[in-house]
Amino acid sequence: MAQGGLARKEISSHTYTVSHEQKPANVTTIENGQLTLSEFEKMLIGIGVFVSFFLLVSIVSTKNAINVSQRSLQNITSQNNRLNDENQSMTQTLDGMENDAINRVVKKDNLSIANSNVRDVTR
């Protein structure tokens, strides 16, 4: 117990003085309202600008590549639709020619076609 009291007396007996005139060594001074930048800070800003510019260029080129791909896909899709329409038109023309050929044979041989005698056959 006596030792605890001794330690408290020893700690309280030390006084510390802080001088307001001393400046820390790592703080830069402000002159004319401007902060000076260290070489590391300048290098960091330069690298940041370079990376930002590189990302901007890569985004723009990627966007252009996507637009070219979309245009190509749209051209292929429209060509596919045109070919499908043409195929459907040719199918209808062929069906019409088949009906005309059947009707010519029927007239030539003096036959008749009744709907009840015709079977529907799918392909």
Automatic annotation (TrEMBL):
Record keywords: Coiled coil, Membrane, Transmembrane, Transmembrane helix
UniProt-annotated stretches for the region Disordered: 1-20
Coiled-coil residue spans: 66-100
Biological source species: Fructilactobacillus sanfranciscensis (strain TMW 1.1304)
Segments traversing the membrane: 43-62
Protein name: Cell division protein FtsL
